[in-house]
């Protein structure tokens, strides 16, 4: 057994012990290709890729990489917008036992170079749009194998081989059985510091995704699913595959023999999303909270009558706040769907909360379970009725840790009372009935005059205002309070709400110390493609604006 495989098996999550092998995304997709080759795997624009074609192209890319020395344990970086090539490149890496590595397509040259170096990437598959951003990485790593994918024809990565040529060479990869121990890297920026790679075993990730909706069970053999003629879902991830939310849903859908519909625009085009849902009869669309829900709702308000969206069964969301107001608006247009709020992070898949049109619509509620716990500072579990605040933790199948970062691994992946948990840093409390109240990421917590304010609670309040489109709350340095609570607000175009109006609205339901001392209106909160706010940038903007106008 190769050393790197033995090391991974020795480091296997102690909560999983099913022997060698386990669940493999690549094995599942290869099985569908063998048993139902004409099923459609991926749709993107005018491209309709069957499972047979999906497997064939992945084998060709795997063969090309193998001929250049890429093998088990090597890293294959993917700097691509949502496209068939993203999933084909992922599949190719897994066929070799290599590790797919996500690269944020918004990264600058220095950031790409850092990630290529930090991940020890042997190969990079990149859209030509990002030729300038990868130039520094290719200069520093002359042995980096680069496959360039044509997107807009305006760039060329020096020294790259064209994707069509790599596929056309039709090289045969080594005959290798995909393994549940094969690794997947998910680079996450977190809230501080340089991006770090979360190391998932294929088996652990497959089981964690399955158990989010089906606690205690294990994923079925896709061959049985096909043999029984079970219908497979059609998914549209409106968010980028380069982040966990979109990728995880795509992995699950393809592992069940379903179809993934992709839009290759780097920005959300709400009309294009609804058009694709209608055209492809999409059943599930995945978004990232209000950052996606609000534009989608605005488009529905303007055009619902023009579209047949009857195939849609569910809208799923993860990563950021999905407000009750947006849920109500979407359900008013789509009363037959279920809205699913998933709780999780790159470091761990936790739980989900569902709501339908005839149910009370409140912020998503999650409960203590075998997998979910709230852990106090003294490394004990917080139980119902305990008024302490702790950190949210998830057990069961979780990542091995962070690549090349033992200190952060030890801080995040901890053993509490004999069980291993992932504790990414989210504050939470436990109500008397076992319901978990989420309070936000620890690094975003504001300490004002000795009181702790959790931004998410205040942001949700502002989002209830009919003229508020988006809201982020930060703390800025203050001589009197230590930190001053400041809200940055994006209002609807026709809004006439003033700062005093918005503060009064917040004050009507929030304790005085939680009410922002200042409310700043911005044209845009400039959320990232994954819907998350850049708290560092917004805190800097708030600090500058408040210092320039302290009134």
Structure commentary:
With 551 residues, this protein is α/β, with parallel strands linked by helices. 33% of the residues lie in helices and 26% in strands. It contains 17 helices and 28 strands. The protein is globular and about 65 Å long. The N terminus is likely disordered.
Residue windows where pLDDT falls under 50 for at least 5 positions: 1-20
Strand percent estimate: 25-35%
- Tell me the major beta sheet: 8 strands, mixed
State the secondary-structure class: alpha/beta
- Overall mean pLDDT score? 89
Number of strands: 28
Rg is 23 Å
Strands in their spatial order, largest beta sheet: 2-1-11-10-12-13-14-15
Shape: globular
> Do you know the CATH topology of the largest domain?
Rossmann fold
Q: CATH class of the largest domain, anyone?
A: Alpha Beta
Helix content: 25-40%
When the domains are counted, the total is: 3
Task: State the end-to-end CA separation.
Answer: 68 Å
Keywords:
26% strand; alpha/beta; disordered N terminus; single chain; 17 helices; eight-stranded mixed β-sheet; Rossmann fold
Compact overview of the structure:
The chain has 551 residues and is α/β, with parallel strands linked by helices. The protein has 17 helices and 28 strands.
């Amino acid at each position: 057994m190769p050393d790197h495989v033995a090391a991974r098996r020795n480091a296997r999550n102690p909560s999983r012990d099913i022997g060698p092998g386990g669940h493999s995304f690549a094995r599942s997709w290869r099985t569908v290709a063998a048993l139902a080759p004409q099923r459609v795997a991926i749709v993107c624009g005018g491209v309709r890729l069957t499972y047979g074609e999906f497997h064939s192209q992945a084998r060709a890319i795997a063969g090309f990489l193998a001929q250049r020395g890429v093998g088990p344990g090597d890293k294959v970086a993917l700097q691509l917008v949502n496209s068939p090539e993203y999933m084909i490149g992922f599949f190719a890496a897994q066929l070799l036992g290599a590790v797919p590595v996500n690269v944020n397509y918004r990264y600058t040259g220095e950031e790409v170079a850092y990630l290529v170096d930090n991940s020890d990437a042997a190969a990079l598959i990149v859209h030509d749009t990002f030729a300038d951003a990868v130039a520094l990485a290719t200069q520093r790593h002359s042995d980096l194998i680069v496959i360039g994918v044509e997107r807009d024809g305006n760039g060329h990565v020096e020294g790259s081989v064209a994707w069509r040529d790599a596929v056309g060479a039709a090289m045969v990869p080594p005959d290798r059985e995909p393994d549940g121990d094969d690794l997947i890297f998910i680079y996450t920026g977190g809230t501080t510091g340089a991006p770090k790679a979360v190391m998932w075993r294929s088996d652990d990730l497959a089981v964690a995704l399955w158990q989010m909706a089906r606690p205690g069970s294990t994923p079925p053999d896709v061959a049985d699913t096909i043999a029984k003629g079970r219908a497979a879902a059609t998914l549209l991830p409106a968010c980028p595959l380069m982040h966990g939310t979109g990728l995880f849903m795509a992995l699950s859908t393809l592992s069940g023999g379903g179809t993934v519909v992709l839009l290759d625009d780097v920005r959300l085009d709400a009309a294009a999303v609804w058009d694709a849902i209608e055209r492809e009869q999409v059943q599930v669309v995945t978004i990232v909270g209000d950052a996606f829900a609000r534009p989608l709702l605005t488009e529905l308000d303007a055009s619902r009558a023009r579209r047949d969206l009857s195939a849609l069964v569910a809208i799923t969301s993860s990563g950021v706040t999905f407000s009750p107001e947006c849920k109500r608006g979407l359900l008013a247009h789509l009363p037959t769907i279920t809205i699913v709020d998933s709780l999780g992070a790159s470091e761990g898949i936790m739980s989900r909360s569902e709501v339908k049109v005839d149910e009370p619509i409140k912020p998503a509620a999650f409960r203590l379970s075998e997998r979910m716990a709230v852990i106090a500072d003294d490394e004990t579990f917080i139980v119902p009725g305990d008024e302490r605040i702790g950190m949210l933790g998830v057990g069961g199948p979780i990542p091995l840790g962070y690549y090349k970062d033992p200190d952060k691994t030890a801080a995040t992946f901890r053993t509490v009372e004999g069980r291993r948990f992932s504790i990414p840093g989210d504050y939470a409390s436990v109500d008397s009935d076992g319901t978990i109240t989420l309070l936000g990421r620890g690094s975003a917590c504001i300490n004002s005059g000795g009181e702790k304010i959790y931004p998410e609670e205040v942001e949700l309040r502002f989002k209830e205002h009919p003229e508020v489109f988006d809201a982020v709350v930060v703390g800025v340095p203050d001589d009197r309070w230590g930190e001053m609570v400041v809200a940055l607000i994006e209002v609807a175009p026709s809004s006439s709400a003033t700062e005093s109006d918005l503060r009064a609205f917040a004050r009507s339901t929030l304790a005085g110390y939680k009410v922002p001392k200042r409310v700043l209106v911005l044209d845009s909160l400039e959320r990232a493609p994954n819907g998350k706010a850049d708290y560092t940038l917004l805190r800097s903007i708030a600090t500058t604006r408040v210092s320039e106008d302290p009134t």
